[in-house]
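4.2 Preliminary Data

To establish feasibility before requesting continued support, the project team ran the inverse folding procedure on a target of 311 residues. The structure was first converted into the token representation described in Section 3, and no sequence information of any kind was made available to the design step. The complete token record follows.
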């Protein structure tokens, strides 16, 4: 279905330019992703996307009546639910960006496949390598032994638990920074609050890419509960834990660093578990897990060539 006359094109252009200008204003100095409003909106958080689309409405009196009726019939614009105001649809943005030669089917579906349908084994290195926050989160979860849904980072437990998780995150950051495993060497602290939301809730809630970066070992339930899926059929997967250690340290650690990492993990587990978990369900505080963790850390070094092929 095409835009059939100049009146329709003019009307659709007005809707598009209003939306484009608002998206650009929101992004400030950042350019549109792939120069496309449609793709940029796909990459935008849902609340922001909703606000931008709502903000980009046009009143019926601002659009020629015959053109508006036609665009509505073709599904290029839709009513806002507010009397006599209309917004552009995804179909309308797609159609107009095709007219402008910004998008075509190959470009759109290539983008969707690369960003939403590609498994970890096919992702490029920059999309599978952990960033600093992800390294800190992963080391924190290993140190505390959040190894199952029953022993998870449960942020509904209240401020005492949330504050303890923040404390461990900050200690993990310091350890990784001092050992040289963080990319942003200028950052001197971790856990600085922005806004009213508790730092730990904000950190985990916005940590959306680690599932695909860890072969889906990192999990979340959607109820502010996050865990490493390592415990199945009564046994801990040492292979998966070795792989997670490799994701953090890439197998490039000295004996002194091994001892320090092991000590850190054991101290966190022994001192903090009662604040973090329901101890009637938490299985991983027993001394035999101290040995398992050290063995997995050692194996992450010996298996680094294997893990480098897994990404």
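Position-by-position output of the design step:
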């Amino acid at each position: 279905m095409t835009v059939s006359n100049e009146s329709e094109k003019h009307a659709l252009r007005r809707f598009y330019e209003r939306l484009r200008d608002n998206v650009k204003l929101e992004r400030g100095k950042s350019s549109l992703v792939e120069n496309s409003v449609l793709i940029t909106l796909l990459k935008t958080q849902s609340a922001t996307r909703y606000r931008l689309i709502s903000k980009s409405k046009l009143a019926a009196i601002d659009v020629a009546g015959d053109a508006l009726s036609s665009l509505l019939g073709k599904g290029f614009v839709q009513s806002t639910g507010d009397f006599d105001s209309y917004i552009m649809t995804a179909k309308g943005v797609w159609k107009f960006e095709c007219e402008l030669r910004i998008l075509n089917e190959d470009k759109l579906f290539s983008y969707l496949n690369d960003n939403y349908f590609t498994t970890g084994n096919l992702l490029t290195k920059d999309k599978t390598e952990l960033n600093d926050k992800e390294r800190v989160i992963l080391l924190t979860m290993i140190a505390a032994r959040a190894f199952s849904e029953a022993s998870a980072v449960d942020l509904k437990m209240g401020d005492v638990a949330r504050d303890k998780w923040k404390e461990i995150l900050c200690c993990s950051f310091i350890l990784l920074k001092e050992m040289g495993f963080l990319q942003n060497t200028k950052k001197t602290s971790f856990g600085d609050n922005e806004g009213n939301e508790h730092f730990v809730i904000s950190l985990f809630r916005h940590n959306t890419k680690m599932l695909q970066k860890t072969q889906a070992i990192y999990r979340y339930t959607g109820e502010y509960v996050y865990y490493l899926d390592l415990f199945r059929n009564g046994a801990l997967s040492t292979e998966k834990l070795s792989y997670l250690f490799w994701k953090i340290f890439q197998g490039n650690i000295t004996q002194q660093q091994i001892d320090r990492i092991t000590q850190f993990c054991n101290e966190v587990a022994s001192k903090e578990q009662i604040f973090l978990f329901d101890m009637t369900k938490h299985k991983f505080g027993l001394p035999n897990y101290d040995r398992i963790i050290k063995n997995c850390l050692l194996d992450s070094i010996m298996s680094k060539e294997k893990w480098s092929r897994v990404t």
